[in-house]
Amino acid sequence: MCPSETSSGISRRDFLKATGAVGAGLVLAPAVLGEEAAKAGTKELNVALIGAGTQGRVLMEQAVKIPGVRFKAVCDIWPYSQKYAAGRLKTYKHDVNVYTDYQDMLAKEKGLDAAIVATPDWMHAEHAIACMRAGLNVYCEKEMSNDITKAREMVLASRETRKLLQIGHQRRSNPRYIHSKTHLIDEARILGRITHIYGQWNRSVAASGPRGFPKDYELDVETLKKYGYDTMARFRDWRWYKKYGGGPICDLGSHQIDIFGWFLDCRPQTVIASGGTDYYKDYEWYDNTMCIYEFKTPQGMVRAYYQALSTTGARGYFESFMGTDGTLQLSEAPGQCRVYAEGHLTTANGRHPWEPWVKKGYVVKLEEPEEKKTETKSDVDAILDVYKSERPETFLLKVDVEKSYHLPHLENFFAAVCGEAKLNCPGEVGYETAVQVLKVNEAVAAAKITFKEEDFKI
Question: Which helix (H) or strand (E) is 340 found in, with range?
Answer without folding.
Answer: strand 338-341
